[in-house]
Amino acid sequence: MDLIASEIPVIAEIPLIIAGTNTVFSNPNDRSALAESFRILTTNMNYVLGTEKESNVIFCTSTIKGEGKTFISLNFSLAMASLNKKVLLIGADLRNPQLHTYDNINKNQVGLSNYLIDSSPGWKSSVMKVFDKQPNHEILFSGAIPPNPAHLLANGNFETLIREAKLLYDYIIVDLAPTILVTDTLLVAHLADATICVVRANHTEKKLVPFSQDLSKSKRLVNMTYVINGIKENRSYGYKYNYGYNYGYNYGYGDTDT
Length: 258
Prior knowledge:
By secondary structure, this protein is of the alpha/beta class. The protein has 8 helices and 7 strands; from the N terminus they run βαβαβααβααβαβαβ. It has helices spanning 33-49, 69-81, 99-103, 112-117, 149-153, 157-165, 184-188, 209-217; strands at 10-15, 56-62, 87-91, 137-140, 171-175, 194-200, 224-231. The radius of gyration is 17 Å and the shape is globular.
C-alpha cells in the first residue's frame, strides 16, 4: 500500500514481539531488536523536536484501543532514560489505564487522578522509581479510574503538573487516551512539544488514518509523527492493512491496550 500519510513522518518501526519474550526496555544495555528500535525512536524524536530545550513534553496517543500506545510510551521513556536523561512518564489514560500491568503495580496506586481531584498534597510524592537499572526514570501512574476524566484533565491541575515537571525533568512523556471516541487527549494536546500517534500493523485500518491526519493538519495534535508498532521481520511501513479486522469502538474500562 502507499505510505500512511506522506506529509507526516514515520519516525520508528517497532518489531512484533513474540509471545514470552521481554517487552520492557528495563536494562539500558539491552541490545535486542526491540531496544534498538526504541533507540532509533529517541534519535528521530530529538530531530523532530529540533533545538534542544531545557525540557521537552511528548504525548503518546493512538486512534483506537489496542494499537500499543502504552507499550510505546513506556519503552520510549526508558530508552530516553538510558541516555542519562531524567525522564518522567505520566499515565494519563484515565479511562483505561494499562501502564501498571507492565510493572506489576496495583491498579489503584495513588497517581494522577488523585492529584487532579485534590492538588493540595502535590504530585511529587506519588512518583515512583520502578526499574532498578534505570535510575533516571520515574513514573506517575494513572491512579484510580475517576468518573469524570475529561473534566479532571481540563481543570487546570494537569497544566500545573506539566509546568512544574518541566523544571525537574529533561523529558516528560505522557500516555494518553485514544482520540477517536473521547476528547480527553485533545483537551490537553496544546501542552505537548511533539505528539506520537501509534498505529499497529494488521490492526489499524487504513480508513482510520485520515482521522489522525486531520488532527495533525488542524494542529489539534501538536507536531505529530507516526510510530508503527508490530512490524514483522523483513517488513516495512509499506505493509498491507488487515482490512477485515473487526475493531471495536467500545472503549471501556475493562479493555486492554497491549
